[in-house]
Amino acid sequence: MAKRPQIIILSGEMAGKRFDVREGGVRLGRSSSNDIHIPDEELSRNHCLFEQDGADAIRIVDLASANGTFVNGEQLGADAAVLKVGDIIEAGRSVLRVVAEGAPDETPERTPAPTPGAIDLGLAGNQAASADAAPAPGRKSTARSSILWGVAALVVVCAIAAMLLVPSAATYAPRPADGGGRMPAKASGGVTELRYEKIDANSSHIFRFAMEVDGDGLMRVTCDDVPGEQRHIEKKKQLTKEEKAHLAKIFDDEGWLALDRSYSGSSAMDENRLESYRICTIGGGGARETCVENTVEPEAFRRVREALEAFSRNELGIWALQYSREELLKLVKASEDLGDSRWEERDVRYGNISDAVAAYREAVFYLDTLEPKPDGYRALKEKLETAVAELDRRYRDQRFAADRAINLSDWDAARRELRTLLDIVADTDDPRHTEAKAKLVDVEKRLSRKKGRN
């Protein structure tokens, strides 16, 4: 009888580990309850499952993971895929290969440790900018040439950032301006390629988020956060026809069509900081590019930028990775402050405890991708647990009162108690809210019939 293939992990947290696919399957994910537990923030808690297929084969099933499971570069859908020897599986930061049972161990493809003082942003592909590419009208060249770094060890980073921020004329050649730096107001319909890039850099830190969609509809998103989080994340997805149409529709904004090529505030050299947003598109008869540096975004630019970020996080499930640690901590504080405020007023309004739970959960969600966790993380988790326990207690008490009224056929009291119950569990996605709503509809029908008889 043929031997069943095995799985070996080539790179990632558990590089070198080999495992058999036993009867009942082997589950891989971030949760410690999995057979293959990998503490990787890019993995879902239960990410994918390897199962036996017949007498001598194995197959893989994606467990509705947020970031997807890829076999030989192709993302799995809802159906299982039968694996053969040599197939490559990507799950989070881990790369796995299907090997014949008893095959000699392969050398794990471990990522080399970074050279001290050097920061690899993975931007080599952006260094081929045209030497003839001139800065857009009104742009201060100092923003493209250098930043006064306060930390000498980051001079290399400064050079990388400068090369990154020079527009590549070969790739995105903007249409000629109309004489005043404004791009022609030509319809954007038919956008086929785009690039959105966000840079937030200062003397000790660079955060970069980039989203690209090529002519074939392949979306790639990369995120670098150095040296703080030392994150380098790259995700990709093949967009469907409907998704590509939705993406193109984002640019059907009259305000976008009227934007200038460049909006610049104080120079990066003067501020020792660079906050830059750049959006380039190809389609609709030409190319468009708008860049905003160290200044307030025009409203139309902000709308388009936020729509692109929303699209990428919805399609790839990487919401938190679009923000630096500094930005995430600001969001955490705002959510935690809101939760504290609602908790302090929990006896003032029925829904305040539900609001506090939602706010604390949001704050914890923001911190999910950050390591190490900031001071106060444990206290935040305890606030959430306390609020959840109090919400559960009040729900049980109120549900008892509502069910008692229903059992006594006291429909007026039942309606009153159920409305209070809905106020207590205000989250419409909570199954308890749905259950109470269904009971209230039934009670109101009974009251209506009773009124009709009278």
Describe it for me?
This protein has about 450 residues and is an alpha+beta fold. Helices cover about 35% and strands about 25% of the residues. The strands form three sheets. It has a seven-stranded mixed beta sheet. The protein has a six-stranded antiparallel beta sheet with strand order 2-1-11-10-7-8, with no helix packed on it. A hairpin with a 2-residue loop joins β17 and β18. The radius of gyration is 27 Å and the shape is globular. About 20% of the residues have low confidence.
- Evaluate the radius of gyration: 27 Å
Structural class: alpha+beta
* Percentage of β-strand residues: 15-25%
Compute the average pLDDT: 78
N- to C-terminal separation?
80 Å
The total count of strands amounts to 18
Identify low-pLDDT runs.
107-189
Biggest β-sheet description: 7 strands, mixed
Q: What is the tally of helical segments? A: 11
Helix content: 25-40%
* Order of strands across the main sheet: 15-14-13-12-17-18-16
Oligomer: single chain
How do the helices and strands follow one another from N- to C-terminus? EEEEEEEEEEEHHEEEEHHEHEEHHHHHH
Overall spatial form: globular
